[in-house]
What does this fold into?
Amino acid sequence: MKRKGSGRVTRREWLRGGAAFGAMLALPACGGRGAIETVDRTSDLDSRKDRWMYDVIIVGGGPAGLAGALMLGRARRRVLLCDAGARRNAAATRMHNFVTRDGTPPDEFRRVAREQLAEYPNVELLDARVQQVTGEKGELEVRAGERTISARRLLLCTGMIDEVPKLPGADALWGKAIFQCPYCHGWEVRDRPWGYLARPDDLGHLVPFVTQLRGWTEDVTLFTSGAFELPDEARRVLAGAGVRVEEAPVAGLIAEGERLVAVELAGGGRTPCEALYAHPAQRQTELILSLGLTLEAGFVQVDPMRRETSMPGVYAAGDLTTRMQAALPGAATAMQAASMIHVDLAMEQALERASP
It folds into this structure.
């Protein structure tokens, strides 16, 4: 951490190294007992209330945002969680793979999480959309609804916006028979005819993704619509897995109510299909784009340990940072970000109060 040519460590370098080291010390002991009681900070929180200066403002009230709020609340930070209300998995009736919560309706998950956050008086919730973020690390200004609020740090948990495939019938079936993740939805439709609707951008992960679908069903069809050339090696592997390849253009989806029955092909042919998987294009929210953060393949880039973005003082967790998108990973990365924010704030406060 030394500067070249000098034996000295800069304040920024010392803070960054101290935060990472502090998190490594703190996180492995989370299951232990005998935590030391600290001095009540209630009066300190109240003294700052009139200025609306929060330690952290969290944008997004899904699993990631809720987990981050809980972690920071238990660390006695003053937190404001802003939630616009709309959720990305609005069509989903159950969430899965979240241990102890498997099969829980998403709205119920949020209700219970908010109920638990209410036990922490230093955590507040604001049902409003965040329209703008200005300022710099330590003095960030957030405009949410009709309020402008100040915070020392910002945690973004805004998710992604999915572009539903432009096919007749797709809108009505999205989240009901058209899915992105077999681990989230596959069990309920196992042993039925499945399909994967591929785009040219999917070529890099297409073969392993489609091959794994055979774990849920013996009937899998890959629909390419002739939009790209499938390499010979990919065809060989897919054939070995028992996956059929259909290259005729997909014309539409045949449904009975909310149940998918078949994929309609150009020329009138139909392929039986009751679960169709797809990885459509995704985009960031307008707020994220307005911040000018560094993106890679459309996702916000973060430091892998600290989860800080290219904008100092602004952190990110959950779906907006990765294609590994699910409730549990989102909550886990928010917990990681929250711990790093707490350590960073503690180090900053200590340096401010330290003797020259």
Notes: The chain is about 30% helix and 25% strand.
